[in-house]
Amino acid sequence: MAPTLTASPLTRKAGTSWPETWQHCLAAAPEAFRDDRVLNLWNAGWHADGRALPATSPVDGTPIAGPPRLDRAVARQAVRAALDQHRAWRHVPPAERRARVAATLDALATHRDLLALLLVWEIGKPWRLARADVDRAVDGVRWYVDGIEPMIAGRAPLDGPVSNIASWNYPMSVLVHALLVQVLAGNAVIAKTPTDGGVACLTLACALAAREGLPVTLVSGSGGELSQALVRAPEIGCVSFVGGRDTGAAVATAVTDLGKRHVLEQEGLNTWGIWNHSDWDTFGALVPTLFDYGKQRCTAYPRFVVQRDLFDAFLAAYLPAVRALRVGHPLAVVHPDDPYPDLDLGPVINAAKAKELRDQVTEAVDRGAVPLFRGDPATARFMPGQDTSAYVQPVTLLDPPRSSPLHHAEPFGPVDTVVLVDTEAELLAAMNASNGALVATLSTDDRATFERLAPQIRAFKIGHGRPRSRGDRDELFGGLGASWRGAFVGGELLVRAVTQGPAGERLPGNFPEYQLMP
């Protein structure tokens, strides 16, 4: 009898442990890192203030650096210092601003792999997606560096710095990208590190920017503690927020009451409708890409609205695709020198979120949802004995009950829901379940059907059989309904949102007093 072959246990890729990664940070930016913590950046200097909270990596529970949370009084000092920086920076000639931002981009590109590795450890991004996050930030801002002059012609920086409060899922391609474009447009900038992850990656990126003389402030703290300084302070010229609707609603109330410039990107239930559709090969090939980073992104598609007559064909294309998803530890390899594993998703942001998702799924099934697919943890790529508490295997549910959060809200994790419909009216009602979304897609063979139905879907971007994304360079971005408040962004609109134009200018966006589409 031939001997039974057993798979070799996985191990961590050589040179990627958290202590090694931290040592690289200390070497790359010693001014911003200490042996046991990161520092806050304000008044053009690094400060060992704030109480550093303990933190663990969602990857395997390894202790990592936590955010050094400032109190309200120090945050106010930081904002006042940012105003002084702003008043000086707004007079720096555009050519010099371009040169300094370009030098920052070169430095970010030099440290690309370290920034990506920090994203793996801090927020659990698979390696391929972590590098893409860094690349999108660098390449996207280079587009603005090359074309900023006509965008700022006849415009001026704001009266005060731009305050940025963003979620943890895209520290580079959303937050750092926004900071650098805002600086390029003539503003000083303030960023609050997300509470749930990304503080070391943002600290390194901001250290590289500060070395080039960019007016960047980076602070940590709870939203409740710092909102008075970062949202309501009179020094702030604009508030840019990316996050959930509950927190976003509080920010929206504050900035509206104060008449302050704002850009508030909020969540929505992005939906994918299927009506009179037959190109299942294309659809099946797209399904795995929709699970990138465990659907922890603002343009994820967690809801499929399917014509009942096509449900069997939908399952025949969808189920093989989700069964093939690759889940696991983003640094686990067979041999230490192997390439990074090519995964579709790693952990969600933390164990608490994983438990929340599992509880929501259990409750939905108990109340009548039908489980169509559940991933098997035994097929995931885990190392022996590793902590897997932050991992959620992909799940698909049919018809979640209306009482479930999975019916009307974005789960922000690898949980899909399917709703069956019989009429076009039902299709549209189901696709508009969250009162506005950032993106949507309708798969239908007939172009005329798409063009007739698409204007009735409450999403800013609508794809015909293809997913839509936040976009890069000249692609605009915004949201309809409750998914967006304030100025739209993307391309020239991002610059217009953080600069002053002619008297009486109405920016494209979703404001209390008007909505203006680009």
UniProtKB/TrEMBL annotation:
GO molecular function: oxidoreductase activity, acting on the aldehyde or oxo group of donors, NAD or NADP as acceptor
Record-annotated Aldehyde dehydrogenase domain positions: 50-493
UniProt KW Oxidoreductase keyword: yes
The keyword Oxidoreductase belongs to this UniProt entry's keyword annotation: yes
Short name of one Pfam family: Aldedh
Top-level taxon in the UniProt lineage: Bacteria
Keywords: Oxidoreductase
PANTHER family per the UniProt record, alphabetical: ALDEHYDE DEHYDROGENASE-RELATED
Record protein name field: Aldehyde dehydrogenase
